[in-house]
Amino acid sequence: MSNMVSQCAPLFEVTSLTKRYGEQIVLSKVGFDIREGEVLGLIGPNGAGKTTLLEALAGLLPIDQGTVAWRNVPVAPARRREAMFYVPDSIRPYADQPVARVLSFVAEVYGRSQDFVASVVVRVGLNAVLAKRVYSLSKGFNRRLMLALGFLAPHPLLLMDEPFDGFDLKQTREMMAVLRHEAAQGRTLLLSIHQLADAERMCDRFVLLSAGEVRGVGTLDELRARIDAPHARLEEVFLALA
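Structure (tokenized):
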């Protein structure tokens, strides 16, 4: 992570966020911040609470406790969609519609030009399936479509749940470059990733989530320092802290 990003004031801050389902606590006093222009990785195994946390941050799930602030000002769930766009995993938007029509519709909602749509299509590699209906897409192409919708949205913060799901190793590397380009253009990214090797290559800082609790926040070097292992991989750090 660059010094410029590390020295920025928080763009978005979460404090003591707690979510219960009956007697079960699925998120317990979660707290971290996101700095403008960074790629922050939300890291943890399946079942750690990553998707629940993203849905709570996006205002889709009510929380039982805690605050979410945008530039140090608490923001209600209904207002968060003005600042952030959530790209979920495993959904197929407008499944009966052709990909090109879905892209055009979303572009029209956000006032994006057709030239801008065309540039996004090229970046995410959707040219080959523009005429196909969404329900017929492979998992990988549906993921490309979801990424494209995120790029069409003008929001300064993108929340993405498993952005590399459905890609092979080569495709994952390609999409990492695409997301890095998006961040370089000024977009801030919060990515939920369960593959730690992918996260280590992609992210500036990390939030380590295990069983609904934050076990560490920081750059890889900062987290390594916590376990006194200066050359540890992210997987080793996670196991030591979780």
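Residues 95 and 136 are 8 Å apart (CA to CA). The first helix runs from residue 3 to 6.
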